[in-house]
User: Fold this.
Amino acid sequence: MRTLAGIFGERNVRVDDQDRYLHGFGKGYLDLIRVWKGSQASVPDVVVYPANESEISRLFSESENSEFVVIPYGGATTVTGGVDARTEDAKIVICLDLKRMNQVLTIDEKSLLAEVQPGCLGPDLERTIGSAGLTLGHFPQSFEFSSVGGWVATRGAGYESTRYGKIEDMVESIRLATPQGIIETPRVPASAAGADLKQVLVGSEGSIGIITSVTLRLRKAAATSNYSGIIFRNFQDALEAIRTMIQEDIVPNVIRLSDPSETEASMALAARDDEPLLERVGLWFLRKRGTSTPTAP
Assistant:
């Protein structure tokens, strides 16, 4: 532990039961079951909080000949066991919590690029670049609690990926600290030479190294937003309408198709006592025309 304290500082090395336990679980159903059962088999032995790339590189250098397992930890919204510390070997498991590396380092408003540290959470990123009238356009279901490094490491998708693409389409370059040194891809829009190393690193799930910074491609934020719902006679008609839109290159930011049961549940959750008269009349008219519509709660 003296070695870790020398790298990260004593305050940033935690071995107490609470810290270790909180870093042993993601947000999947299996994680919830393990919590309910009081399982402690998969918690890390120690949690460290690096402040920069240099400290992570020093950890790899110090542990080169040691029996260490290093697990990167971002927002911990994983549902795939990404923070599971179980190992078949009797090795020390170090959880590397990246929450201190949470800054937007630079914003290039001319080239529409931002260099971001891995621990930056979604709302903090959008708030910072939004002040310049920009957006990344990446809004996964875990947006409020997940981090940039996690998005890239897991090759994430968001609600607006129909328009903006998935996270791999937004990464200009990526930088990792590995046991063999630093890996950084060129900061260029595209390359026509050889295999694309960037696409190997994006989605690598921490198996190659720890992401220390990412340069992301931004977009101009829309001046206004308009969300509309359309009720179709049946599911197949709705599916064909979406297919036609995409093939005709009519691509809004978000297209979501719900079956009757999901639509009814959504409207029940959104029900208001002051439901507009026009909305009630509209649903009544559609039912008269033979269209299946959600029933009032």
Q: What stands out?
A: The longest strand covers residues 171-178.
